[in-house]
């Protein structure tokens, strides 16, 4: 049995779900997990204006209430000329997977989430992403520097890897993030769409395994 997690590091509900996902994986250490980058707003050219900020703050309040996740509202409000393009950060997660296939990708995913939502960093900037990605891999014991990470992130291979994940997301028929799927006996079925608790997901997985 394999659990397929489809999400985007700049999706607030995915950020709120990260703690639940981590709890689930810790409770089921033998569970194989595949991380698929969803590309929530990949390629967007829309500037984040005041209306866009208020829209996100409303969502953030709901996520915070349900999950307890921390948000840096001041950093969001202070952003100027910011394009909410999630392709660069999705590509950064794909880059980590290319550089170190054995890395815990959920942890790397979480590092980018924290960088955006808590630290208020610009997760559309390649050099910023390279620093975060290299640090996340180093924390797992891999010897990767930011310069090497940036080189791979800038490559056609990384661009294609992210696009392949976006294509898989479309094939799976994902309509919201985060989404969970289960692959069992060669068949893939959807487990949940949107925020869910680790306990409820674990219960469903154990029922399927039985």
From TrEMBL:
MF-aspect GO terms: oxidoreductase activity
Record-linked InterPro entries: DSBA-like_thioredoxin_dom (IPR001853), Thioredoxin-like_sf (IPR036249)
Xref: Pfam families: DSBA (PF01323)
Protein name: DSBA-like thioredoxin domain-containing protein
Domain DSBA-like thioredoxin: 3-187
CDD domains: DsbA_FrnE_like (cd03025)
């Amino acid at each position: 049995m394999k659990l397929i997690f489809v999400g985007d590091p700049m999706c607030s509900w995915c950020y709120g779900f990260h703690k639940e996902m981590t709890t689930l994986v810790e409770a089921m250490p033998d569970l194989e997990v595949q991380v698929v980058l969803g590309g929530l707003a990949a390629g967007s050219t829309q500037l984040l204006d005041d209306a866009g900020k208020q829209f996100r703050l409303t969502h953030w309040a709901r996520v915070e209430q349900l999950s307890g996740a921390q948000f840096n509202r001041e950093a969001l409000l202070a952003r100027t000329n910011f394009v909410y393009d999630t392709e660069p950060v999705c590509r950064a997660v794909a880059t980590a997977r290319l550089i170190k296939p054995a890395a815990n990708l959920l942890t790397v995913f979480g590092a980018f989430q924290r960088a955006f939502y808590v630290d208020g960093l610009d997760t559309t900037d390649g050099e910023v992403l390279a620093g975060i990605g290299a640090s996340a891999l180093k924390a797992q014991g891999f010897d990767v520097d930011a310069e090497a990470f940036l080189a791979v992130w800038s490559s056609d291979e990384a661009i294609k890897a992210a696009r392949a994940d976006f294509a898989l997301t479309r094939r799976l028929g994902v309509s919201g993030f985060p989404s969970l799927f289960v692959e069992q006996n060669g068949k893939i079925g959807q487990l949940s769409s949107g925020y869910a608790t680790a306990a409820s997901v674990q219960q469903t997985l154990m029922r399927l395994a039985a």
